[in-house]
Amino acid sequence: MEICFSLPKVGWYNAILQPGFHLPYPDDTLAFVVLSTPSMFDKALKPFVNKERLKIIRDPVDQCVSHHLSRVKEKFPDQKVDVIFDYEILPSRKPKFLAQTAAHVAGAAYYYQRKDVKLDPWGKKKIYGVCIHPKYGGWFAIRGLLLFPDIQVLFLEQSAPVDCVSTEEKRIELLEQFNFHWQDGRYRDIIEVKERYSEEQKAYFATPPAERFRLLGLTQEAQRSTFH
Fold first, then answer.
1. Which domain of life is it from (predicted)?
2. Residue 52: its pLDDT value, please?
3. What is the pLDDT at residue 166?
């Protein structure tokens, strides 16, 4: 699967968050943030769907990611490996981890937020932040977290994420596009990117989830029939 792994340790993440969002591991616990790149669609998702066509598929992307991370775990038979997926939530309805914060502290992608703009033009409006990757811009996704509870990394040096949207004007443009025009995807191209989603992939993610099966050659009726 086309995945990028970025290396943080738990303490870097916990240090910048309120206790309610802390990961319940010692500070020096080794972790990896898992990102999917644009080529994941053709190199991982479509082959996975073709292979699993006769099995129950409820969410193709989530099940594809789960499949490949399970294979990663199998590479470490003598290690305990915990996986947290980006969509998992706690009983309190809080996410199990804050994906964009994790990507930032791992040095994978810069998490641009309102506080990164000196002259705030938005008044009382709610403004959400967004991660930008130095190679893929906004054409990537944060899929999960791999944790190795039995591995402590005492002397790991933290790498800062690349500040690829460095001007005030561009940061305002990015947050404006992401918060008020996210459907058109322009925020993803806030920088010059090396690779972006294919037209087929754009169409897939722009389609309501219930209608995506047909784009992969699946039918919901066929999926239901596998229950019987």
1. Eukaryota
2. 81
3. 92
